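User: Here's a protein and a ligand (zinc ion). What would the complex look like?
Assistant: Let me lay out the input and then the predicted complex.
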Amino acid sequence: MKRQSTLDYKFLGNCPICSSEFNGSYASQIEKVDSVQTIYVECKKCGSSVVLGVVKNMPGLVTTIGMLTDMKQKDIKRIRNLPPITPDDVLEIHKYLEQ
Ligand SMILES: [Zn+2]
């Protein structure tokens, strides 16, 4: 099977507010740095806007980090100006979760 190099929308996870599964058609990629994709997604159920960091460090293993935002799709240019999520941030979160 050919592995997709683009965003695999089934790994978007769930809304931090209402726990409903994110729908890929509501998602836009903001940027991609190495193995980390930053994605903006709107929850179709509660309308929350979330910026996700999707990390693929190895095949089959995907980590997502959700950050609630008050930005909307039209603000995406503004989101692009934010510091990107880096693999270091992911490491920090892993450390935090392991405590
Ligand atoms: Zn929601």
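Summary: The chain is about 15% helix and 35% strand.
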